[in-house]
Fold this sequence. Notes:
Elements: H1 10-24, E1 32-45, E2 54-67, E3 72-81, E4 93-106, E5 109-117, H2 140-143, E6 150-159, E7 166-174, E8 202-212, E9 215-224, E10 242-253, E11 256-267, H3 270-277, E12 284-294, H4 297-300, E13 307-322, E14 334-347, E15 350-361, E16 368-378
Antiparallel strand pairs: 1-2, 1-16, 2-3, 3-4, 4-5, 5-6, 6-7, 7-8, 8-9, 9-10, 10-11, 11-12, 12-13, 13-14, 14-15, 15-16
Amino acid sequence: MSLHRSLSHPVVVAAVVLSGLATAGPVAAQERTTVGGYGELHYTNPTGFGTPGEVNVKRFVLYLAHTFDERITLRSELEVEDAKIEGGEEGGEVALEQAFLDYRVSPALTVRTGLVLVPIGIINETHEPPTFNGVARPALEQDLLPTTWREIGIGAVGAVPGGAGLNYRVYLMNGLRADGFAAARGIRGGRQGGKKASFANPSVTGRLEWVRPGLRIGGAFWYGGSANQAPELRDGTFANPVFVLAGDVRYDAGPFSARTVLTTMSISGAGRINATYDRGVGSRLTGGYLEVAYNLLAPLAPASAHDLTPFVRHERYDTQDGVPQGLSADPTFARRITTLGMTWKPVFNVAFKADYQVRRNRGGVGEDEVLSFGVGYAF
């Protein structure tokens, strides 16, 4: 079962359904409900072995889907972070991670509307713990491509006719809010996440993906305004635009696997944003990572259903790779992170993880080494 889907505007869905029924005739009802979920527990020690670490129920997520008939499906996820939330407490949340309705017209076209995951990078859509190596998600796909990034929108997904494994996703969504941008984590704080989201500046996002046995190659973009009618920023539909371009590759050949992500982002109004909010936002943000892994049990115990996979991942990204006039780039935002670790899967959807991270930056300040252990599952 895939857990990457997203609830919709009932008026829009009703219009689509009525249109479909008018052309396609009645559809036999085959209602069914599916329950699933995923979760992960982390131990983290940011000084390596030097001091006591911290343990945390990082995520507990329940997945609920309902198929109304052969055409209409609801998919949703409700997430609890950091075990519990108390009044005035920093961190943690209870959030609707995604909730959307799909109306399937044909294999080439499914209309999707609701709270939808932005189809950029690898982790944002495929974020269940057994699907990636490392206790935590790659840092680049937290700071630069901010997981879990979801917004309210409507769009289409499907297979390109005659495309031999070519699939697409394209959405019209609400935009970002520049008042949440920051120097260290870029646009992450500007996500609206479906909570009373402003549609003052719409955005367009999409992904084209080519899938063959053992190979998945994708390219994605985001373009939209971020001014949110702030009087100090420019007016217009795409005022203070943010443009993101990303590519990714996943390769699996027997026991060997590799994945890589490359991305670049421009914030055209960074100077105006900094003058208004004093955030030190970069005008260009860039980065990428490469990870390779090998299942040792494939040659050593070929009859085993277990996986024992050491991996290494190297990330480089800079949230101030380019800066607007009047701002000096902070070298500590040019980060280099190397992660060495091991993942053991006694079954395909349960993972026990351990890794050691070496975190460096161009400024040589605030560097550390992190020891982590984790358990994750999905069902």
